Amino acid sequence: MVALPTESEKRGFSMIMTRCHLSICAAMCFSATAPAAIAKPALHSIFTDHAVLQRDQRIDIWGTAEPSEAVIVTIADHSVRTTADARGKWRVSMPPMKAGGPYKMSVASDSGTVQQLDDISFGDVFLCSGQSNMEMQVKASMNADAEIRRADYPEIRLYTVPRASSPAPVAELPQGGAWKTANPENAGDFSAACYYFARELQPHIGVPVGLISASWGGSAIESWIGADALAKTGKGPEVALLRSYAMDEKLAQTAFGQSWERWWKSSFPQEPNPWLDKNPSGWTAAPTPMRDWKKWGDSELAQHNGMLWYRKSFTLTPEQAKSGTVLHLGQIDEIDMTWLNGKPLAQSFGWGTNRDYVVPAAMLKAGQNDIVTNIYSGWDMGGMFGPAEVISLELKDGSKIGLGDGWLFRKAPKGAGDPPRAPWLAIGGLTTIGNAMIEPLTPYRLRGVLWYQGESNAGNAKPYRELLATLMADWRAKFQNAELPFLVVQLPNFGQPVTAPGNSGWSDLREAQRLAVRDDKYSGLAITIDVGENDDIHPPNKQIVGQRLARLARHHIYKQPVTANGPVPTSAIRQGNQILVQFAGIDGQLVTHSALAPIAFEICTTGSSVCRFAEAAVQGESVAIEAPDSNIDRVRYCWGDAPLCNLYDSAGLPAGPFEIGIQ
């Protein structure tokens, strides 16, 4: 299951994408903006007024200048001199500084100061990353108006990294980011989970807190992991294709298109190949004006999430065939795979965004030409949206041949699943978001990372345990801190309440998160199984998420005398007709809410996925579960997409979902 973007996310993405042009922009979504031509010494864009630098660690400062130009960097009364390299890049290291501020920071050449920053503080810096539940802003959270009015925390600052993706690592952040202080003017745009975490934590540590928010709604974890690390998880061929794309886009698009064709042929051997199909039977005129296929009045498409084929034929003169340059397909939602005259042209992603593809001269011909595009939409709107006057073939002289009418469509066969995705796509690709939004940050020193992601991987949760471990190891290497703490938010409840034991992708994902964190001594897990909402994948109560993350930080990072995250199972042991599940990390004692006994415990049969609910009772720091059958090999608790669970400790912290083998 893919996490659902909000309408504002779709609109924001669409507005950005409409400014993009040509196939490389459409395929990559939008790349990190290249820096302006080097003219004078300048700090990297992560350094702005109000920045927070990590206390008690060596500080790296970097930027650009003229090649071989001498540069002097000053913070407070510390100055370091260096020389830019042949590419105009420079970097210096400053000695560790204690928490405090405000200070001034400057970069200068021998001719004098060129850039000066004000209100620089030293404190603790946290990177907040993930998908839409981390990206969700304070103004969308619970009691937003009141929260924004009371936001007066000058010691809390946040830098939001604008969305960007790139097939290869880049050094510059996308334009538009700046450090901002937490006040009523700025706080509404802050990441809610990130902000509430800092608000809860800061009084307990007494130093400035800097937050870097780098998130993208709907993104899968694979899009955040570096290429070398991801290749070791079995993604080597896909990573190789992505690297090929960075070198030769057209070659990679062709190779991917051919693999897409092989997928179709193996998945639907009895079906025609629509990109080659000249037979008009099975194709129907697409309704006009172009719009969401769910609005066509076709009962089979009214709730259709999946694929639909589109086709358009047009005629060119010999001269026109030689001068076609760009194919404009208008707005498409969500992923298209497009062919021209039976040959793969491109695949790209976007929520209702323009598709503009460079056309190699050899792909067009005099006479009839055929465009075929397969469009996949996993949620909400889907299809081609035009407008008709935009859909066209642009010629070298700037004139256009209209292609907005006469489109046909064909339904995909029943049971068609998700089609392959090119590795250069943004939220569903590999490494691309990390290349543009994390890689430029890696010299910046951090105190910890907050990670809230997983919804987009719940449909294939099995690899997630390894992928999360890989992400943590990859980022620790990039940020040069082998002990960098990760505070992971476990997925909340979402969907229909559980009425009977069964399999659940969301539960599998939560268990993968639990096990990855359990196996990593520098990470902690924030339980949110009681925070979600059945019909809202973006629960607005981010205050409690922030509180639980802050509690984790106080326990794991600052070693303060608080429990970390509620009762944690340590063992399940059979004792006669009962199974005794032992818990640790309890603040006070185990308690149950709204019932005399704990609910949502399941016992599972050996060698089977069959489980059943079981009666249970609290016994001190354990829960005793009735299990008279001898063929029970494991216990599950709080399983399902949206289970109702009532086991807590005295501090109001819930026991999280788990599956544990019986000793």
From TrEMBL:
Annotated Sialate O-acetylesterase domain residues: 445-551
InterPro entries: Galactose-bd-like_sf (IPR008979), Ig-like_fold (IPR013783), SASA (IPR005181), SGNH_hydro_sf (IPR036514), SIAE (IPR039329)
Keyword Signal: yes
One Pfam family of this chain: SASA
GO molecular function, one term: sialate O-acetylesterase activity
GO terms for biological process, alphabetical: carbohydrate metabolic process
This protein's record includes keyword Lipid biosynthesis: no
Keyword terms: Hydrolase, Signal
N-terminal signal peptide: 1-36
Name of protein: 9-O-acetylesterase
Lineage top rank: taxon: Bacteria
